[in-house]
Amino acid sequence: MLVNWHDPHHIYLVCGKTDIRKGIDGLVMVIAENYGLELYSNSLFLFCGGRNDRCKGLFWDGEGFIMLYKRFENGRLSWPRNSNEAKKLSAQQLDWLLQGLNPFPIRKIQAARPGSFY
Questions:
Q1: How far is 73 from 95, CA to CA, in rounded Å?
Q2: Beta strand 10-14 with 86-89: parallel, antiparallel or unpaired?
Q3: Quick one: DSSP state of residue 110?
Q4: How far apart are CA 95 and CA 75, in angstroms?
Q5: pLDDT tens by residue, 37-81
Q6: How far apart are CA 42 and CA 40, in angstroms?
């Protein structure tokens, strides 16, 4: 069975570096122990290891877990490494991520300094 990336109601990106050598049980434990998210609620969880050219996904289809593995032959993922949290993604952000773009664009607007209006 093939999984449409946009079918799940919730898409979570697990930030930081995950040992993607883990199988289904190991990744389920990462979610259960560290994030407290509901594993069986039509959610897709995405993990990335030390190399940014591949990722794993974990999806519950109602009968069991499906593990997805994607390797990027020409490019790398822009994966947030700064924290150990799970960030919720929209469908658009997922598309950006799978195209190698940063799903969380950095804002370039700087705050104005007091008295710098004139």
A1: 17
A2: antiparallel
A3: P
A4: 15
A5: 888 888 899 998 888 888 899 998 888 899 988 888 777 777 777
A6: 6
